[in-house]
Automatic annotation (TrEMBL):
Name recorded for this polypeptide: Cell wall synthesis protein Wag31
Location of the protein in the cell: Cytoplasm
Keywords associated with the record: Cell cycle, Cell division, Coiled coil, Cytoplasm
Keyword Cell division: yes
Keyword Glycoprotein: no
Entry-linked Gene3D superfamilies: 6.10.250.660
InterPro entries: DivIVA_domain, DivIVA_fam
Superkingdom: Bacteria
Length: 89
């Protein structure tokens, strides 16, 4: 996937404001602009979703950082003794 910088990404207003030339026997402009409106709505929805996901990522990273700070000296100890080759403890 190619990641574009924020300034290179297509914004909903760019889709809505796009103007096409006309030709004899061309596409129906009403259908084209209706579809572009749907595309712009989808871009806007995806941008909102990405913003929400980034905020959640920040929250999870902060929680992990706090957990690590509280457990910096902790060591895991297995509560069960090791199992020998015969399946007995």
């Amino acid at each position: 996937m190619i990641y574009k910088s924020w300034s290179d990404r297509l914004a909903p207003h760019q889709v809505r404001s796009r103007v096409f030339g006309t030709r004899w026997r061309g596409l129906d402009p009403d259908q084209v602009y209706a579809y572009l409106g749907e595309v712009a709505d989808e871009i806007a929805r995806l941008e909102r979703e990405a913003t929400t996901s980034r905020a959640e990522l920040v929250r999870v990273r902060q929680g992990l950082r706090q957990w690590k700070e509280r457990h910096v000296g902790c060591r895991f100890t297995d509560p069960w003794p090791p199992v020998n080759n015969r399946g007995h403890r």
